[in-house]
Design goal:
The structure is a single chain. 28% of the residues lie in helices and 35% in strands. A five-stranded antiparallel β-sheet has the order 7-6-5-4-8. Helix 1 crosses helix 2. The chain is globular and about 50 Å long.
Length: 173
């Protein structure tokens, strides 16, 4: 698997390979596929619109129908399963090099599978990525390069600057 692709387990990689071509044809980008649970697993599909506009409920419905049909035909998951489709959201995961570049300058948290410079958890400002590494300026001012294929999870931190940059109005309760 190319290092620019999301880091997946074997089942998630198979699901990604099944789902991604149809979503691309429909005008979407697959951000992440996760499978949670065992007895009745939940397949979580996170997507963006390829044109960069905000994803709508109708988009999620269209993706859900397509993914359901694909998984029903190919039947990669034995037994019953649930499907959840969503947008990546404002405080989105950083799964691809393009995500790290798009959100350069924003705060994020990352965790690696193995220690990098003696640690596995990192918090700081996203500096971008290339095909092999994502870069961050940590809270202590040092910079770190995290191999993309070693990142277990990475996510943007919700801040006023991120809300302003994504053009999403804050919700009031």
């Amino acid at each position: 698997m190319a290092t620019t692709e999301p880091n997946h387990t074997t089942l998630e990689a198979r699901l990604t390979a099944m789902i991604e071509p149809a979503l691309q044809f429909m005008g979407y980008e697959l951000v992440r596929v996760m499978v949670l649970g065992r007895d009745r697993p939940t397949v979580q599909v996170m997507a963006d619109r390829a044109d960069g506009s905000l994803i709508t409920i109708e988009d999620c419905e269209a993706i859900s129908h397509q993914v359901s049909a694909t998984l029903d035909v190919d039947d990669p998951i034995p037994g019953a399963w649930n499907l959840e489709v969503s947008s990546a959201g404002i405080d989105r995961p950083l799964t691809r090099a393009k995500d790290w570049n798009r959100f350069s300058g924003h705060l994020a948290r990352a965790e690696t599978q193995f220690p990098v410079n003696g640690r596995k958890r990192f918090s700081g400002v996203v500096l971008g990525a290339d095909d092999t590494e994502a870069r961050m300026r940590l809270d202590d001012g040092t910079e770190v390069a995290l191999p993309l294929d070693m990142i277990r999870r990475a996510k943007l931190v919700l801040t006023d600057a991120l809300i302003a940059a994504t053009g999403t109005p804050p919700t009031s309760n």
